[in-house]
Amino acid sequence: MHQPTRMWAAQAPRQLAALFMMALVVSAGLSSASAAPNDGERVYDRQLMRLAEILGAVHYLRELCNGTDGQRWRSAVDDLVRSEGTTALRRATIAKRFNLGYRSYRRAYRRCTPSARSTIDRFFKEAIKISEDLAKLGRN
């Protein structure tokens, strides 16, 4: 029972660093990659909004589980908003998705549990995959 917790604690810093770096790559590369006419929807919006939601959930869960990230995840979504938020509506939509992720997991978890740690790990993996896919779009 203790081994999964120990493994999670050992892997978390690497996953955190990778996710944070990927979020920065995404925010730097996407806005120039494929802007839609009249600032409408972009082909990657579904992925971008999911990433914002994951960042909100991770922000809450890492604080709950005594993470030492501080405002790292809120800063990452702020970078996404600055990069992708070309209209007030778009900025509000990204922020809304971040807040949705945060609030959803605040309702679900009141204390750090093995399930909360497992959720963080799953979100790291999903967010890294999304970020890698979005970064590929930014290079094309």
Folded structure, characterized:
The chain has 140 residues and is mostly helical. It has a domain at 45-140. Helices cover 80% and strands 0% of the residues. It has five helices and no strands. It has helices at residues 2-33, 45-64, 72-84, 88-108, 114-139. The N and C termini lie far apart (45 Å). The relative contact order is 0.22. The model is unreliable at 1-10 (pLDDT under 50).
Summarize the structure.
The protein is mainly α and 140 residues long. The protein has a domain at 45-140.
What is the rounded Rg? 15 Å
Measured by DSSP, the beta-strand proportion falls in: under 5%
Model regions low in confidence, pLDDT < 50 over at least 5 residues? 1-10
- The level of helicity is over 70%
The number of helical elements comes to 5
Describe the sheet with the most strands.
none
Q: In angstroms, what separates the terminal alpha carbons?
A: 45 Å
Class computed from helices, strands and strand pairing: mainly alpha
* Count of DSSP strands: 0
Mean pLDDT: 77
Element pattern in H and E: HHHHH
Shape: globular
Blueprint of the fold:
Layout (H helix, E strand, L loop, with lengths): L1 H32 L11 H20 L7 H13 L3 H21 L5 H26 L1
Helix pairs in contact: 1-3, 1-5, 2-3, 2-4, 2-5, 3-4
